[in-house]
Amino acid sequence: MKIKEIILLTIIPVIMFVLCFLFLKDIANFYMSWFDPVYAYLFNGTNLAQGIFDIGHIDHPGTPLQILCAIIIRITFFFQDNSSLVEDVLYNPEHYLQVISLILISLNVLAVFVLGFVILKRTNNIKTAFFLQFTPIISMVSMFFMPIIACESFLVFCGVYLVLITFLYTYTENTLKPRSYILWFSFISGLLLAIKISSFPLIIIPLFLLKGVKNKILYFFSTILLFFVFILPIIPQYANHFNFLNNILTHTGRYGAGAKGIIEYHLFISNILNILSEEFPFTITFFGLLITCLLITIKKKWFINIDKKQKKLVWGIFIMFVIQIIIVAKHYSFHYLIPVYSFVILGLYAIIKLYLPLFKNYPIKIKTYLLVIIASIVLSGFTTRLYVRYHFYPNLYNPMYNTKTFLEKYNNTPKIIIPLVYGCALKESALYFGMVYSGNQKTKYAQLLKKKYPDTYFFLKDRGIFDWQKNIMKNELFSKYNQFIIYTKGSDKLALKENIKALLDINSNENLLSLSEIYTNPINEETIYLLISDTNKIKNLTSLKLDIFCNLEQLDSNKTSFVDSTRKYLFEKGNLQSSENPYSGKYSIKLTKDLPYGLDIRLKLIQNTFFKITVWRKSQSKNGVIVACSNDPTFYKNSTNVIESKSNGWELVELTFDISKDIPDNEIHIYVWNNGNDVVYFDDIHIQEYY
């Protein structure tokens, strides 16, 4: 192997690295971008890095990427000057994300070099090796996602290696033993499925290529087995993932939303047109494969001397493309096709290899010119697409940094983000998003983030004001601080206006809140307001409407309900009273897996009130939830938020929420729930309603 050939094989990897680095620089900070999975993977990677097999984000499932994040986080932390891994990640998230991104970029760049190197070594054909190195960069969508901590970046990596194994099996002899091919095909296919289940059409390729039913069956079951190996951390939750997939299949909206049904036909056709117009190299290859498959069927004599594996490969890639198009057309998004983009170049190569023998009587110059023309089209098309579809530093980097710089002048001012958006100038929004998807570690992370960002709040019209841990009463907050920064972002100006109106509604005839616009960034649709609050007057607005306390010591005459301290209210399931483990007095309520509900109470209410509910809980597994809901699914709140702990294992759990809209029947149902398998004790429930 000549030095100049090795240098040639480094050209595309170097181009890839430079482009990905520019993309990464343009992103600047991941919390400023719209890539919503990034912080979810960071938090779940942090879970695994602690040795905690608790994954809160299982939709893709994405487990291999989370494991990779955990490894990188653990290694990166080794070089940090901090005694707590969790605090270091939560307080310096962008540092860890940048390291993970650079490693993902490096893995993809290395994969492309290995692809070219191995093909050159096995074929001694530098043209073939160099051409197939275009595998990832032929798609601008794939290139754009490579620096992102998301499934798509890892799918590119796996796709390159699947292309390599497929090429070796189809076009080289005795490179690997047959069983070795089955092992490699199964390993990569299982990994692809574990990263993103929607990439399953790719497993069709080996099914087309492998000889014999026995080998196909062995490959299929090996792939399934390895899939479950790669998702081991989420096996206990796999029923939830299955339900998620079932909802996607049986509903017309994205992520299982929308009306019941398989597809919406007008959207389906529209999405197919979008798919075929998104990446023209994919479209050219797709129609090239379609025509070639038809010719293979109709003009069999043309291809009589062609190896069967080459014809099977063409059919396999074409069928795989068709299935992926059908899947993506149901719920279209441009990055859903990334798994099949990896086979665009190999598909072109397969087509060329089939047709070249038909030109065997033509001079070598004509065939050379043909290849040069094809390569020129690929290169010019890629360059044009890069220019047309992406200009560096136009959208995110400069404008968002302008907002970030402006906000630095108000570092010590409490902030309210409306609504809770992913991709804004405030890091807290992305951190909250990641925390929500962190499984049972959410409570611990919320406490740390509350410590780091004590004066950051969020607001949604239907939820009210909330911080990292719980809902906050508006009047209580506005009487605490005399000014706030209100950060808003979004194109729906009407919805933002309604949210701001709801935020300022504090049930007062006086003008106690003053709002003024101090900054706007039309490029990113950001507006910042300064809110001035008359703290003294607002403090006097709040009154306690209802105060119910029950220590679970006294039952009614029927021994079926607990009686509160005023003897006016009853809490159901008094028959579950237990003297085994009280927090105070002699009794508590014992909830088990078979009898999981207790302390039920129904209260009549009015709009624009605020509830604060606390109950003491003792649970070895940390299960046990406070629930408040309406008589239909329109209103449902629950909490496991611990605000105080005792050395004897008892914890004070709190649920807070606003009633900002009409509730069916003007009635709310409050109860406690043992949501686990172990015994849970509850004691001393306290319900307060403020007006």
Describe the structure.
This protein has 691 residues and is of the alpha+beta class. It folds into 3 domains: 3-389, no CATH class; 397-539, no CATH class; 544-690, Galactose-binding domain-like (Jelly Rolls), CATH 2.60.120.260. The chain contains 24 helices and 20 strands. A 7-stranded mixed beta sheet has the order 4-3-2-1-5-7-6, sandwiched between helices. Strands 8, 11, 12, 14, 17, 18 and 20 form a 7-stranded antiparallel beta sheet that branches. Strands 13-19-15-16 form a 4-stranded antiparallel beta sheet, with no helix packed on it. The longest helix is centred in the N-terminal third of the chain and has 31 residues, at 93-123. It is elongated, with a radius of gyration of 30 Å. It starts with a helix and ends with a strand.
Neighbour order of strands in the largest sheet: 4-3-2-1-5-7-6
What's the Cα radius of gyration? 30 Å
Please count the beta strands (DSSP E, at least 2 residues each). Answer: 20
User: Mean pLDDT, nearest integer?
Assistant: 87
Keywords:
691 residues; alpha+beta; Jelly Rolls; 3 domains; 7-stranded antiparallel sheet; 24 helices; 20 strands; 48% helix; 17% strand; elongated
Task: Write the topology of this structure.
Elements lengths: L2 H25 L9 H13 L13 H16 L6 H7 L1 H31 L2 H7 L7 H6 L5 H21 L6 H18 L8 H6 L3 H18 L7 H13 L14 H14 L1 H19 L9 H23 L7 H4 L2 H12 L8 H26 L7 H11 L7 E4 L8 H10 L5 H11 L3 E5 L3 E3 L4 E2 L1 H5 L4 E7 L3 H12 L8 E9 L4 E8 L1 H5 L4 E7 L10 E3 L6 E3 L4 E2 L9 E4 L5 E8 L4 E10 L6 E5 L6 E4 L1 E5 L4 E10 L7 E7 L6 E11 L1
Parallel strand pairs: 1-2, 1-5
Antiparallel strand pairs: 2-3, 3-4, 5-7, 6-7, 8-20, 9-10, 11-12, 12-20, 13-19, 14-18, 14-20, 15-16, 15-19, 17-18
